[in-house]
Specification:
The complex is a heterodimer of chains A (230) and B (400). In chain A, the strands form two sheets. Chain A has a six-stranded mixed β-sheet with strand order 6-7-8-3-9-10. In chain A, strands 2-1-4-5 form a four-stranded antiparallel β-sheet, covered by helices on one side. In chain A, α3 crosses α4 (120-133), α3 packs parallel to α5 and α5 packs parallel to α6. Chain A has helices at 46-53, 82-89, 105-114, 120-133, 149-161, 179-196, and strands spanning 4-13, 20-30, 35-39, 61-66, 69-73, 90-93, 167-171, 199-204, 215-220, 223-229. In chain A, β7 (167-171), α6 and β8 form a beta-alpha-beta unit. Chain A is globular, with a radius of gyration of 17 Å. Chain A is α/β, with parallel strands linked by helices and 230 residues long. In chain B, α2 (12-50) packs antiparallel against α9 (277-308). In chain B, the strands form two sheets. In chain B, strands 1, 3, 4, 5, 6, 7, 8, 9, 11 and 12 form a ten-stranded mixed β-sheet that branches. Chain B has a two-stranded antiparallel sheet with strand order 2-10. With 400 residues, chain B is α+β, with helices and mostly antiparallel strands. The longest helix of chain B is centred in the N-terminal third of the chain and has 39 residues, at 12-50. The chains are: A alpha/beta (230), B alpha+beta (400). Chain A binds chain B through residues 47, 51, 54, 56-57, 83-88, 90, 92, 94-96, 98, 100-103, 107, 110-112, 114-116, 120, 123, 143, 159, 171-172, 175-176, and chain B through 1, 3, 6-7, 9-11, 311-312, 315-322, 325, 393-395, 397-400.
């Protein structure tokens, strides 16, 4: 079974004469454990692709299947619980890490676990495991404001991994980091893709960061124009 | 995980300061309720202390507290003879303002018969009045020492006792003297006026050539005695024998004596509803306005706090958080702010209410009702924030 199946995915913004086609006929499949990079200039449609797969943006046409569940079929699939899908099957990593400022590093991971139904003790235990695995065991009680950019991004990765999602979507995860920290984060994602058997799709405009990715899509004017396989 | 508590913990300075501001506002609301209850308690204090069944006043008046009432003192004997009456007590009273330590000093002076009820409540220092003249008992709130002398009218009165606090319907502390002293203070004319009146009466009688000198002198003495008499009271309190019919006794007193007999319940209504109705409405209106202001402030605080958290809310939605988690965070913050503000307001009033110039009576029911209202306001106020939060799209979490 594929982690992601996308067929003729199209996203058109606006109505009537003022429509903008942000994404057109995207078709691909991603296996569990595969690491996929999406490259392209600003406004090319790479984030639109990510948000359509991430169940944030409703596709206009085409189908999206996540871990065997059809989530979009010319619009959202009838009866699909988007929040539940996002909670259980997807993990998100953002450019600005988006940690909740009033929660400690540990609580930022715990919140993802608790809203997925884990008890407080279970969430506590798993969050410590995850943060320790990402070398943040000594920072669990620190607020995001006290963490460096690299540390914050690692907490965000721990949160994304918390519920063992089938798919991890990362939007410019290294954009706010220096080269060394950016490289470390990318290496970490590669390692996690293998260990957790999760499909990881990373949007980036930095070609230097995609070494070692299984596949690299290039998006231009809303179309996937190139696909390289390592 | 309770997000509301964690947000408050992180922004505790802002939260506490906001709650203090709101708490002071709620303190004013609580104090206004207390002032209103105090007005009622003050208005009814003399009634409750005396425990009279009927207040007999001048016919056609709503006296003795709501308007002026003057009746002859001897009517007490006629009233005492009415079937069903157990005891009567005539009272004379007036509000007096004197100069004390260079400042105006106002109090309510009650004159009562030493042989009947209507005197001061519990004496907490000194003793009750024993002599027929020139002794005085004052309420604790007057802050007058035992043995102090107060000049009222043409005489000096010695404070022999301090009573528990009691105030008039106007909120002035009460002092007690004997009935005859009170009558003298209230009704006796000044020496100059007496001399003037006597000269006028003398001249008028002397001008009547039909009278012999003896008859003229006798007439003059009678007229002077009548005009200088102080045997007038403002009311006669009546206590009934057990089982006596109140209505019937009232009717009998009114029928015979051209007086008005007001039952204790009617007197309570006159004082509570009539005299303080406008004050009640005024205070009620202020309270409503302040509660509306509190509601608007809470709404604004919650709304701006929600705006501050748009990205947090979007992130929560993106990671699959249920709406109840987000609604709970906003609603709980609003309610916690309300609880803290109410607590601060209550504490402020609790620590200061005795220092207010007017009596503040805090009743548990009023406080409970206000708490419920504050919680309702917080809940309603949080709707604007919740509405905004529910409209936030998860996509807003993306981007730099």
């Amino acid at each position: 079974m594929f982690a992601i199946e996308v067929d003729n995915l199209t996203k058109i913004y606006g109505k009537g004469e003022t429509t903008v086609t942000a994404l057109q006929d995207a078709t691909f499949k991603v296996r569990p454990g595969e690491l996929v990079a999406i490259l392209g200039p600003s406004g090319s449609g790479k984030t639109t692709l990510l948000t359509c797969i991430g169940l944030i943006n409703e596709p206009t046409l085409g189908t999206v299947v996540i871990d065997g569940t059809t989530v979009a079929d010319g619009g959202w699939h009838g009866g699909i619980d988007l929040k539940r899908m996002r909670r259980e099957k997807l993990g998100f990593i953002f450019q600005a890490h988006n940690l909740i400022p009033f929660l400690t590093a540990q609580e930022n991971v715990m919140i993802a676990l608790e809203i997925n139904g884990l008890t407080r003790n279970e969430a506590k235990k798993r969050s410590v495991e995850l943060l320790s695995a990402l070398n943040l065991g000594h920072r669990i009680n620190n607020y995001p404001s006290a963490l460096s950019g690299g540390e914050s991004q690692r907490v965000a990765i721990a949160r994304a991994l918390a519920n063992r999602p089938k798919v991890i979507l990362a939007d410019e995860p290294t954009a706010a980091l220096d080269t060394e920290n950016g490289k470390n984060v990318m290496d970490l994602l590669k390692k996690l893709a293998v260990e957790n058997h999760s499909a990881i799709m990373v949007v980036t405009h930095d070609h230097r960061m995609v070494d070692g990715f299984d596949r690299i899509f290039t998006v231009s004017d809303g179309r996937i124009t190139d696909e390289k396989i390592s | 995980m309770n997000l509301a508590i964690r947000d408050i913990r992180y922004h505790r300075g802002r939260f506490i300061l906001t709650s203090i501001g709101l708490g002071l506002l709620l303190g004013v609301v609580i104090s206004m309720g207390g002032i209103y209850r105090g007005l009622i308690a003050d208005a009814l204090a003399i009634l409750n202390t005396n425990k009279a069944d009927i207040w007999v006043v001048q016919q056609g008046t709503s006296g003795p507290f709501a308007e002026s009432s003057r009746i002859p003192e001897e009517s007490r004997y006629r009233i005492a003879a009415v079937p069903g009456v157990a005891a009567v007590s005539p009272l004379a009273f007036q509000t007096i303002q004197i100069e004390r330590s260079g400042k105006p000093f106002r109090f309510f002076l009650i004159g009562y018969g030493l042989d009947s009820f209507g005197g001061p409540p519990d004496i907490i220092a000194g003793r009750n009045i024993r002599q027929k003249h020139y002794e005085m008992v004052v309420a604790r709130a007057m802050r007058i020492e035992l043995g102090e002398k107060i000049t009222l009218g043409q005489n000096e009165y010695t404070v022999v006792g301090i009573s528990e606090n009691i105030v008039s319907s106007g909120g002035d502390p009460v002092a007690y003297v004997t009935l005859s002293d009170a009558q003298e203070i209230q009704f006796k004319k000044s020496n100059h006026a007496i001399r003037n009146d006597r000269a006028k009466i003398g001249a008028g009688v002397a001008g009547n050539k039909a009278l012999s000198p003896q008859q003229a002198e006798l007439l003059k003495q009678n007229i002077i005695a009548a005009t200088e008499s102080t045997h007038t009271v403002n009311t006669v309190m009546v206590r009934l024998v057990p089982g006596a019919d109140l209505k019937e006794t009232q009717e009998r007193i009114e029928r015979w004596n051209r007086l008005r007999a007001i039952s204790d319940a009617e007197q309570t209504a006159i004082l509570a509803k009539g005299m303080i109705e406008k004050a009640r409405m005024q205070l009620g209106l202020f309270r409503v306005i302040l509660l509306v202001i509190s509601g608007v402030i809470i709404s604004l605080i919650i709304y701006t706090s929600t705006l501050d958290k748009i990205r947090v809310i979007a992130t929560l939605k993106l990671i699959g958080s249920q709406n109840r988690v987000i609604i709970g965070m906003i609603l709980q913050q609003s309610l916690l702010m309300g609880v803290l503000a109410y607590g601060i307001g209550y504490l402020v009033i609790l620590l200061t209410y005795e220092k207010f110039p007017r009596r503040i009576v805090l009743e548990a029911f009023d406080l409970q009702m206000l708490f419920v209202i504050v919680m309702a306001i917080c809940t309603i106020s949080s709707f604007v924030g919740i509405r905004k939060a529910l409209k936030v799209e998860p996509a807003e979490a993306l981007g730099g």
